[in-house]
Amino acid sequence: MKKFLSRLYLAFIFILLYAPIAVLIIFSFNNSKTRAKWGGWTLKWYFAMFRDQAIMSALRNTLTIAVLSALISTLLGLTAAISLNAMKKNRRTVVLSALNIPMLNAEIVTGISLMLLFIAAGQLLSHMGLGVEFGFWTVLIGHITFNLPYTVLSILPKLRQINISTYEAALDLGASRFLAFRKVILPDIMPGVLSGFLLAFTLSLDDFVITHFVKGPGFDTLSTKIYTEVRKGIKPEMYALSTLIFASVLLLLLILNHLPGSEKKA
Amino acid sequence: MKKQKHVLLSGPYLFWTAAFIIIPLLMIVYYGLTDTSGAFTLSNIAQMGTPERLKALWLSLLLSLIATGICLVMAYPLALILTGTKVNATGFIVTIFIIPMWMNSLLRILAWQTLLERNGVINVALRFLHLPELRIINTPYAIALGMIYDFLPFMLLPIYNALEKIDQNVINAAYDLGANRFQTFWKVIFPLTVPGMISGITMVFVPALTTFVISDFLGGSKVLLIGNVIERQFTQVGDWNVGSGMSLVLMVFILISMAVMQHYDKSGGEQVVL
Questions:
Q1: For B146-185, what is each residue's pLDDT tens digit?
Q2: CA atoms within 13 A on the CB side of A15
Q3: Of A68, A146, B9, B34, whose CB count within 10 A is highest?
């Protein structure tokens, strides 16, 4: 009886979590242009989306921002973790708290604060004949900023488990500091670096709120495009594209988990 | 030499933290406490006092507290069931709850509109079963449902992690000393999961309190939350001083919840949700 109840509960939660996703996937195959009625199965939106300039440009922006922000925030996070690891405890707590602000703070506040910064920087630079244009670069900076705490917190615990003696042994045996880092430390912290990168990539891919405040007109990611489309109705192409992204990521995850010698945690 | 190297390494991220985390927050404080001419004023904060805005703030607090409570009540037994299953793959369980996040979050919330609509999927099914219809779309109930749906994993994962970490020997010791199942749970397991619960509560409460997307999509622009009021102040009204003043009020609530978390979290903030 108890087992049955817990199965039932699991099923309930599972339906709650996956029902919206099922709805979206089914709509991507809907032959009718509106959500309101079902017009039979079709694959046409999967072809139509590649011809839609606006959607393709939003996709390009989303992917470029996600890859670049994940890459830069992972590199920044790596340097941050290394120097935090060498810090005394009190100082580390202070710096870490500052770094963690974007993770704990409300997204709307982070978005607004960055928007105010860019506006003020624009005003300051205008005296020198320069300006800050809201678009690709402001969005990239925003994404790196909210990704940073996640990459640091993925890498730091791995770094703290490392036995520093192996690194010192490598130095004693004549390795340069860089070589010793690359050959001794990096392989040990690699799982943390990778999971930080993946986490940053996911967060960036899905972000709406911060992008909304720092993007400026004329620059769109998929999320901001969806938000502006809501009032006039979402194009079915959008469902198709999101389903395709969802399926690709799922596939990628499955492949990663089944690679020989891979950790069970992605 | 060693010192110098670390200074070189810490340069870029310390600059980043100062330039894009600390200074922007100070900008909100500056705009929030000054008028357009730059003179000190408290009127931006007092702007929060209009009946409409107070109503939005009150509703936000109410809905986010309700959503947090329901998430806690739903997630705790779920975490217990998941730790109880002998599937020895933490990765698998965690993945089940992370997979939905790969679908665009705006679309997922929008899908609830389709599910909850008057002629939506749920109502069609209810009619088919001759059950009463569900009329919650464009009401605060739909917003609360959206919050619970969107933030449930944030509550589940920290509690699950806390339960996972409990040493089985501690539980066995309680049984050996004559505690029954209920006593063991209440005196041993539950206290050990309090930090996980606290971290889950903040991870749900802050985003729920400050959301404007969920209320936009499921409240049908009839129900305003404080997030909507502030968002409009920036994107439609364009009054950054008043918007910043209201953000400051909002930040007070965020700071309170962070302080509560800091008080219970002994790991020094090195615990990540995922």
A1: 999 999 999 998 999 899 888 889 989 999 998 888 999 9
A2: 7
A3: A146
Contact between B268 and A93 using a beta-carbon 8 Å cutoff: yes
Q: Which CATH number fits domain B49-264: 1.10.3720.10, 3.40.50.10490, 1.10.1060.10, 3.90.226.10?
A: 1.10.3720.10
B125 contacts in chain A (CB < 8 Å): none
Residue A25, pLDDT above cutoff 60? yes
ipTM exceeds 0.85? yes
Spell out which residues of chain B touch residue A253, defining contact as CB-CB under 8 Å: 95, 99
The Cα of B99 is separated from the nearest Cα of chain A by a number of Å equal to 7
pLDDT digits (tens, 9 = 90+) for A61-105: 999 999 999 999 999 999 999 888 888 888 888 888 888 888 888
Preferred mutation among B1, B101, B107 to probe A, highest tally of A CBs within 10 A: B107
For residues B114 and A35, the answer to whether their CB atoms sit within 8 Å is yes
Phi-psi region of B238 (alpha: psi -120 to 50; beta: other; left: phi over 0): left
pLDDT digits (tens, 9 = 90+) for B66-99: 999 999 999 999 999 888 776 555 666 677 887 8
Mean pLDDT of chain A: 88
Sign of CA dihedral A245, A247, A252, A253: positive
CATH code of the domain occupying A51-258 = 1.10.3720.10
Q: How many residue pairs from chains A and B have C-beta atoms closer than 8 A?
A: 209
Among all residues of chain A, which has the CA nearest to that of B26? A113
Query: B88: burial class by Cβ within 10 Å (0-12, 13-18, 19+)?
Result: exposed
Name B67's Cβ contacts closer than 8 Å, sequence gap at least 6. B144, B147, B148, B151, B204, B208
Per-domain residue ranges for chain B? 49-264
